[in-house]
Amino acid sequence: MSNLIMETKDFNFTYAGVDDPSLKNINLPIEKNKITAMIGPSGCGKSTLLRAMNRIHDLYPGNKYEGEINLYGAKGKENILDLKKENDLISLRQQVGMIFQKPTPFPMSIYDNVAYGMKLAGVKNKSELDGRVEKALKDAAIWNETKDRMNTSALGMSGGQQQRLCIARAVALKPEVMLFDEPTSALDPISTGAIEELIAELKKDVSVVIVTHNMQQASRLSDYTAFMYLGDMVEYDKTDTIFMNPNEKLTEDYITGRFG
Amino acid sequence: MGGKLFKNFSFFSATISFFILIGIFSILFTYAQDSIREFGFDFLGSEVWEADEDDEEIGIFGGFIPIIGTLLSTLIAMAIATPLAMGIAIFLTEIAHKTLVKPVSIAIELLAAIPSIIYGMWGLFYLAPIIQSTFGGQGVGLLTAGVVLAIMIIPFMAAITRDSMNTVPDVLKESAYAMGATKFEVIKDVIMPYSKGGIIGSIILALGRALGETMAVAFLIGSVMSIPSNITDPTTSIPVLLANNFSEAMGLEMSSMYYLALVLFVVSLAIISVAKFYFLRQKVK
């Protein structure tokens, strides 16, 4: 139990203007320093769940959360659905980083991209910034490609490099959890391999939740896997169990490619 | 058979605008010849605009006052309009609740549809007295013209800026929020830089509009051939001078007015070309 970093309890989520909840009674533990994968066919709610974990849904008015999502962070247990003030949400998002489907470099230099979150968090000391930018870029395995072009625009990098830059940018904030929303779906196989290696490395320092369409990716990468279908959590277990010996017929059908 | 006809017709339609452009330029240039030969580039810096007492065909004509009047009234308009238009665009794209966006957008687009003479009348009868009692002066003058010009170009600027801010991908904004940015920081660090081209383009296009506006400014700038020493002083602008004097001028004065028109034409064309081709290019992604 004490190894949890996050958990959802009886969590329901309803989008604005919709009557029926898109997520129903989700109970999902997120183990510390492990990789948890969420799989399921399109529309099953896996991205919706991921986006609830840093309350990014709050950017669009009218969405409704019910239940609990607990974060066992530095401050101890905290139900993130109770957060109301903008400052609290900001501190949540600094603890729970997010990487999106497409690389999202900001229209600024490579250095400024990585330093951005730290500057927002109030880090002003130039040498501390320099050090943390370098460390983050090294952690994201992109230091060698960027060290001589720190002041050039991040928009000139390749897609795979941009995605690693986005990971560096998130890592620089030393988050507790990192959420990956299909981080390789827009990348070629070689870049995908690099990102997967990177995520596997990251779990030394952070806990990872990854949404993926790619079942090989889930089985290669994750320690735990949750299978979702039509807004329900069908099954959650160790990744080996889910892929080798699932409890539910539905899980087995999906894993073996009978639908989805 | 029909296809070929249609092709020729559309080719003709497409090229005609090009020829009109060249045609206007060459007419302006030809008629301005006398004045250009007489005054050369000194025309641009000379303040005198006087026909000879005995022979109305000749005289001394310089474009400095209307040129300065045009530039100053435009500058005032830009200074007022730019921050307001940015505010409107940011409000519409990032702050306003969905139910508010549509009515405000429509109101702004309707503002752009009001004929300029109505702005002129409103400015003269309503705004000019207010400006007179607040800032002094005679009511009509640079400031009044500038304020009304600003109101006229705001919708235009706000609409282009809004469109360009709307092209910022949601996921880019989301990732800034996901780094712990506030709304203000997202606007400042992501939305503004991302839509910089569109913002500058809208400013330049509005500038081109303000430079050429005739009717409203004719009501409001005072149409006096004098250099303004104060922001509320009356003066004149190129389009206003042209509109007011065309019916009576002849000879060299007429040619000098063509010269002024040529100056305005070239400046406006240059401004719009820069805006269109440099800043408002479709981003290839």
From TrEMBL, chain A:
<dbReference type="GO" id="GO:0035435">
    <property type="term" value="P:phosphate ion transmembrane transport"/>
</dbReference>
<dbReference type="InterPro" id="IPR003439">
    <property type="entry name" value="ABC_transporter-like_ATP-bd"/>
</dbReference>
<dbReference type="GO" id="GO:0016887">
    <property type="term" value="F:ATP hydrolysis activity"/>
</dbReference>
<dbReference type="InterPro" id="IPR005670">
    <property type="entry name" value="PstB-like"/>
</dbReference>
<keyword id="KW-0813">Transport</keyword>
<dbReference type="Pfam" id="PF00005">
    <property type="entry name" value="ABC_tran"/>
</dbReference>
<keyword id="KW-0547">Nucleotide-binding</keyword>
<keyword id="KW-0067">ATP-binding</keyword>
<dbReference type="GO" id="GO:0005315">
    <property type="term" value="F:phosphate transmembrane transporter activity"/>
</dbReference>
<dbReference type="InterPro" id="IPR003593">
    <property type="entry name" value="AAA+_ATPase"/>
</dbReference>
<dbReference type="InterPro" id="IPR027417">
    <property type="entry name" value="P-loop_NTPase"/>
</dbReference>
<keyword id="KW-0592">Phosphate transport</keyword>
<dbReference type="InterPro" id="IPR017871">
    <property type="entry name" value="ABC_transporter-like_CS"/>
</dbReference>
<dbReference type="GO" id="GO:0016020">
    <property type="term" value="C:membrane"/>
</dbReference>
<feature type="domain" description="ABC transporter">
    <location>
        <begin position="6"/>
        <end position="255"/>
    </location>
</feature>
<protein>
    <submittedName>
        <fullName>Phosphate transport ATP-binding protein PstB (TC 3.A.1.7.1)</fullName>
    </submittedName>
</protein>
<dbReference type="GO" id="GO:0005524">
    <property type="term" value="F:ATP binding"/>
</dbReference>
UniProtKB/TrEMBL annotation, chain B:
<feature type="transmembrane region" description="Helical">
    <location>
        <begin position="64"/>
        <end position="92"/>
    </location>
</feature>
<comment type="similarity">
    <text>Belongs to the binding-protein-dependent transport system permease family. CysTW subfamily.</text>
</comment>
<feature type="transmembrane region" description="Helical">
    <location>
        <begin position="257"/>
        <end position="279"/>
    </location>
</feature>
<dbReference type="GO" id="GO:0005315">
    <property type="term" value="F:phosphate transmembrane transporter activity"/>
</dbReference>
<dbReference type="InterPro" id="IPR011864">
    <property type="entry name" value="Phosphate_PstC"/>
</dbReference>
<keyword id="KW-0812">Transmembrane</keyword>
<keyword id="KW-0472">Membrane</keyword>
<feature type="transmembrane region" description="Helical">
    <location>
        <begin position="140"/>
        <end position="160"/>
    </location>
</feature>
<protein>
    <recommendedName>
        <fullName>Phosphate transport system permease protein</fullName>
    </recommendedName>
</protein>
<keyword id="KW-0592">Phosphate transport</keyword>
<feature type="transmembrane region" description="Helical">
    <location>
        <begin position="104"/>
        <end position="128"/>
    </location>
</feature>
<dbReference type="InterPro" id="IPR035906">
    <property type="entry name" value="MetI-like_sf"/>
</dbReference>
<dbReference type="InterPro" id="IPR051124">
    <property type="entry name" value="Phosphate_Transport_Permease"/>
</dbReference>
<keyword id="KW-0813">Transport</keyword>
<dbReference type="Pfam" id="PF00528">
    <property type="entry name" value="BPD_transp_1"/>
</dbReference>
<comment type="function">
    <text>Part of the binding-protein-dependent transport system for phosphate; probably responsible for the translocation of the substrate across the membrane.</text>
</comment>
<dbReference type="GO" id="GO:0006817">
    <property type="term" value="P:phosphate ion transport"/>
</dbReference>
<keyword id="KW-1133">Transmembrane helix</keyword>
<feature type="transmembrane region" description="Helical">
    <location>
        <begin position="198"/>
        <end position="221"/>
    </location>
</feature>
<dbReference type="GO" id="GO:0005886">
    <property type="term" value="C:plasma membrane"/>
</dbReference>
<feature type="domain" description="ABC transmembrane type-1">
    <location>
        <begin position="67"/>
        <end position="275"/>
    </location>
</feature>
<feature type="transmembrane region" description="Helical">
    <location>
        <begin position="12"/>
        <end position="32"/>
    </location>
</feature>
